[in-house]
Every structure is written in structure tokens, then in C-alpha cells.
Amino acid sequence: MSQLRLALAQFDFPVGAVAANAAKVGDLMAQAREGGADLVVFPELTLSGYPPEDLLLRPSFLAACECELRALAAQTHGLAALVGHPHSEGEVYNAASLLRDGNIEVTAHKQALPNYGVFDDKRYFRPGHDSVVAQIEGVSVGFLICEDIWQPEPAARASRAGAELIVVINASPWDNAKQAEREAVLRARAAETGCAIAYLNLIGGQDEVVYDGGSLLVNGDGRIAARAPQFVDALLWAEFDSEARAFTAEGWPAHTDDAPEAILYAALTRGIRDYIDKNGFQGVLLGLSGGIDSALTLALAVDALGPERVTAVMMPTRYTSQLSLDGARAQAEQLGVDYHVISIENTFESFLHALTPAFGGKPADTTEENLQSRTRGVMLMALSNKHGRLLLATGNKSEMAVGYATLYGDMCGAYAPLKDVYKTVVYRLSRWRNAHGVRLGEAEPIPPAVIERPPSAELRDNQTDQDSLPPYDELDAILERFIENEQSQAEIAAQGFHADTVRRVVRLVLNNEFKRRQSAPGPRVTTRAFGRERRYPITSGWR
């Protein structure tokens, strides 16, 4: 019987920060050595960060990764380390190298290259063809990389080569279905091979994707031995018994709230924090309308960055209700953010006065409504420029899907936290956040009146969203079937939805691709996000 002590580094390794990533690896190696680890494991493409995209086309970038890898190998006396990195030898591979006794002992190449969803691995990498197995303290350990474990053959190759334990390093983006899928896949691979599996995943936000950690230990009989909490940075310790092919986790952080809303809220706050901090912005700015979308965005921003880094601006017109004014002020004061009220009424009137001769006597329509939104966009961008705070767009996925948003108006912003969050989920998150605050003994961060009011853009008298859209419960159900599930109009109508409503919603989705192409990036949290994952043509005759 052999025992292997593992340390799994569930941490963030930002894209392009090669020297900083290597320094973090060195620090964690020292901690692992002090803790008596035989093997310390780091995520996929640790040194380059994931996904490095076209940085991989720069020879100087690849050379920097190689230089840092060799320097880290020199620090491995008395410790083995598995480090992810791009490996260039004429062609470029997504690689994991075992560093031991001052050397790069073996290098495994990723065999299964994903080229779907947010992944473009085949653009940059060549596939490996073998599963590498090495002896560490008497235990046969196979090394796989992310997508390798989702296909049967790489794990089968490792098993045939004698692996008792398979270590999988990952950069697996989070979405609302991912963790259940991971566990099902890992159970299947363990059942097929009899190998135990240590699954280490990256953590942190990178542009439009968010990595959750959520690392797992799976015994050789397919039982889950330990689950790491999601969105928690940690060095995870475990003992592996080769005879039983079983793990014992040591001191893993406790799970605090496993509700779907809690995990989604953590994903959104992590996405905001990492986008702002990694890009070097001082803080954020947003338009606070008194509606639920901007209210939730404000709460997320404060939880991600702290109130001192958040500015909220209310910009009323003649159509702004007292409920909106009161709700916005109450929330801003409750959360302690920098708050301003800037009326746009006079500016809006100036635009109308200047444009009226060119409007040619045509009656008022959505043009005047959109002009209000665009006036707000001008104001917010000016404040963003002046104070160096990144503007957050506050629109949700339901609005983005059907084009219920104004280009160069409420779509202004450099980051959109709710871009992949349906309106019905906005309500669920808001109620969860208030209940969570109450459990912590805090006041509710989102005024209940804001949650309960009928949603409205307040661009004309007595306006509600449902003047233009189906009820959000119905709308979101249709959208999810059309977008996430790729169902046809006939299939959706067959599930009890009125065919005319389905046709109208689908037409709106397809006709507004041009708007979404101009929208800000935001964290991907569903299985089918707008952007790099869902790439529909703007110009298309298909309906």
C-alpha cells in the first residue's frame, strides 16, 4: 500500500501575467512543501492563464512561459509539481509538465481539443496522442487536461498504462448546469477505469467567462470523496490510499450556501471584481433608475468592490416616478455609495428643440423615448471619463434577446453584469440577496418596493414593459427554449405557448442580432450566452 499526499492549488492565474503567475506558483510550492505534500497540482495553462487566445501566436510569449517553467523546475527539490503551460516544439500544445528534482521530468499534451461554446483550442493547439503516467511515491499517477476527462479514451489509455490515480487539471468555465455535468462525467470515468480522480479547476473571471473552482475528489468506485466550494480560493489538501483507491480530504473550506441563487450571485460578483481589478480600474459607475435591474447591479457591484469604489447616478425626467426617486435614494444610502441626482430634463428638451425642424412634423414615437436613454448615456460616459470609473450597463438577457434596449443609451457601458441573466432570474437573485442580508443581520440591500413594482423603462406616461413584451415568465420560457435548447418555433408552440407569441419573440431575437454585437461583455453564466458562444449572423434570411 502506498500513500500520496496531494495539494491542489484552486487559485486564479490571470491571462498574460506570466511572471506573476510563476511567482504565485513558487509561493504555493513552498507552502505545499512545508505542509508535507508529495505532489502539488496547478490548473490548466497556469503560466499563461486561460484562455490566452492570440497571445499564443507570439513567440516571445511562448518563450516567456518556457523560461518561467524551467525556473520553477529548479525549485522542486523535495517536491513534485504538476504545472499547466503552453508547450512549443515547432507546434504548440496545451501541456502539463511534472517538475521534480530540479528537472522537467515528463510533459503531457492535451489530447481532446474542445472547439465548441467558448472554446477555440483547435485554433491554437495540436492534439497529443498518449496519456502520460509517472510514479510518485510508489503511486502510478496519470495526467490529463480538462477535455481529456470528458472523453473515454484518454482515461482508458492512462488506466491501460497502469494508472491508479488520474490527476486532471482544468480551466472549465462555470455555468448553471456545469457542476452536475462534471460529477456525472467523473463518476463515469472512475467506473470505466477503476482509477481514482483528482479534479482541479481554475478559479476567477476572465473577460466573458468565470471559472468557479469546484474541484473534486472521486474514489475509484465512483463515489465523490470531497467537493471544494465554488468561487473560493484555496490550497486543498488530500491523502490518497492506493490500495483502496480512495481519498481523505483535509480541512477543505466549508460550503456556506449551496442554493443556485447563492452560487450564481458569487459568479457574478467574481466576474465584476476580476474584470475591474485585472484591467486596473479604480471603480465603477452606473445609472440607478429605481428599477430592479439597476438595483441588483448596484448590490452586486458593492458586494464585489466595496461601496467606496461605486458611484450611482439617478437621472430623472418628467416621466420618472416618485417611487423610482425614493427607491434609488434609499438603496444608495443603505449601501453607502457615492450618489448623485442629475436631471436630464433640460438637456432632453435641448435635443428636442434642435431636432424638431429636422423631424418634419412627424408624431412622437420611440425616437423621443430613445433620446432620453441616449441623453443618459452621454451623461454617464462623461462622468465615467472624468472620474476614471468604468461604466456598468444594467440590462438583462431577456432585454438583450428581444432588443428591448437602446443602442448608445442604456446599452452604454464597458461591462454588463446581467447580460446573461434572464429577467425572471433577476427577481430570484434580488429576493435571495435580501433574504441573505436578513440572515446576516443586515438591512435589505434592495428596497422591497423596487422588487415588487411592475417593471418600466419610464420613457412615457404610465409605461410598463408588458406594453411591449409578453409577461416575463412567458417570455423567458420561450427564450430559454429557443436560445439554450435550440428548439424550433413549432416545438416551442407544441409545449403550450401561443404560436403568434412564439413567432413574435423569435422574430425579435433574430432581428436584434445587430444590437447584441455592439453590447458590452458580461459574465457567461448559462449554457448559451450571447457573444463568442452564440454566433448568429447579423444578415440572414432564415426565419
Overview of the molecule:
The protein has 543 residues and is α/β, with parallel strands linked by helices. It has two domains: 254 residues, Carbon-nitrogen hydrolase (Nitrilase/N-carbamoyl-D-aminoacid amidohydrolase, 4-Layer Sandwich), CATH 3.60.110.10; 201 residues, Rossmann fold (3-Layer(aba) Sandwich), CATH 3.40.50.620. 39% of the residues lie in helices and 20% in strands. It is built from 18 helices and 19 strands. The strands form four sheets. It has a seven-stranded mixed beta sheet, covered by helices on one side. A six-stranded mixed beta sheet has the order 6-7-8-9-12-13. A four-stranded parallel beta sheet has the order 18-17-16-19, sandwiched between helices. Helix 1 runs parallel beside helix 2, helix 7 crosses helix 8 and helix 8 runs parallel beside helix 9. The longest helix is centred in the C-terminal third of the chain and has 22 residues. The N and C termini lie far apart (63 Å).
Q: What number of structural domains do the residues give?
A: 2
As residue ranges, the low-confidence spans are: none
Radius of gyration: 26 Å
**H/I helix tally:** 18
Structural class: alpha/beta
What is the name of the CATH topology of the largest domain?
Answer: Nitrilase/N-carbamoyl-D-aminoacid amidohydrolase
Question: Which range does the strand content fall in?
Answer: 15-25%
In helices, the fraction of residues equals 25-40%
Overall CATH class of the largest domain: Alpha Beta
Organism: Dyella soli
Function: Catalyzes the ATP-dependent amidation of deamido-NAD to form NAD. Uses L-glutamine as a nitrogen source.
EC number: 6.3.5.1
Keywords: ATP-binding, Ligase, NAD, Nucleotide-binding
